[in-house]
Design brief:
- The chain contains 10 helices and no strands.
- The protein is mostly helical and about 250 residues long.
- It has 2 domains: about 160 residues, Up-down Bundle (Growth Hormone, Chain: A); about 55 residues.
- About 40% of the residues are buried.
Length: about 250
């Protein structure tokens, strides 16, 4: 027998729910990776504090997950998933529009709303997917949904990172050239700072005080530009997931 039986893969409600899971996980992984890096690089947070800055998102995620079950039972899978996807979309947009360039508190509304969205969407999607197959296939279905989470996270992060890197480096190169600064031979160090850990002191250690002072504001604005493009892509994918949620129906297991 095939590892993934045909009757499961040909189950349209199940595959639809799994595809929606792919879209929402992309946004979650993007925020979990890049928000702490941003806080560490440009707010001067320690790694511990940068990680703790995600508590509002994770806390609302945890608090809304049990609530989503009651909403699911009352409204059904379509509206429950759609509410979660819409909140995720709104929260991520709020982070892009109101967060960058301000204090940490500018991120809070977006973190809280997106956390609530994940808390609504992910349990509802899982319930809809597992509930659309026969009881004998339930554990297998749960494993496949989890596979979509992993693939969505890995592939999504790869795409978001590619978009971020391309946009950020193009932006910083243009800014530095416009100010008459030379980036020749420093590409790897600049990209290493953008993609890796570290803060302003890391720039000073790599480039020296004078060069770091010249580079820092350009890297800062380029980093924000790259993140907006990368997370903007995630927003488009989440919007597609929200649209797909409108086609979800309460399904008799098949």
């Amino acid at each position: 027998e095939a590892l993934i039986p045909k009757d499961v893969m040909s189950n349209i409600p199940f595959m639809l729910a799994s595809a929606i899971m792919f879209t929402v996980i992309l946004a979650l992984f993007g925020l979990l990776l890049y928000m702490p890096q941003y806080y560490e690089k440009f707010f001067g947070y320690t790694p511990l504090r940068a990680g703790a800055s995600l508590v509002p998102l994770l806390l609302t995620f945890a608090l809304m997950s049990p609530v989503s079950g009651r909403i699911y039972n009352h409204l059904g899978p379509r509206m429950s998933i759609f509410i979660g996807m819409s909140l995720t979309l709104a929260g991520t947009l709020a982070i892009i529009i109101f967060g960058f360039g301000h204090s940490y508190y500018g991120f809070l509304p977006g973190l809280i709303v997106s956390g609530a969205g994940f808390g609504f969407a992910i349990p509802s999607i899982t319930t809809a997917a597992v509930g659309s197959v026969l009881e004998s296939r339930a554990s297998l279905a749960g494993g496949i949904v989890y596979m979509f989470q992993l693939v969505g996270g890995a592939l999504g992060l790869a795409i978001v990172t590619t978009i971020f890197t391309s946009a950020a480096y193009r932006d910083v190169s243009g800014r530095i050239a416009g100010y008459g600064l030379d980036l020749a031979g420093k590409r790897a160090d600049v990209l290493g700072f953008m993609l890796g850990s570290g803060n302003r002191q890391t720039l000073i250690d790599n480039f020296g005080q004078a060069a770091a002072n010249d580079l820092y504001p350009h890297i800062y604005h380029a980093y924000i530009s790259g993140l907006k493009y990368g997370l903007g892509f995630a927003v488009l994918i989440v919007a597609a997931g929200a649209a797909m949620a409108l086609f979800v129906r309460k399904q008799t297991p098949a």
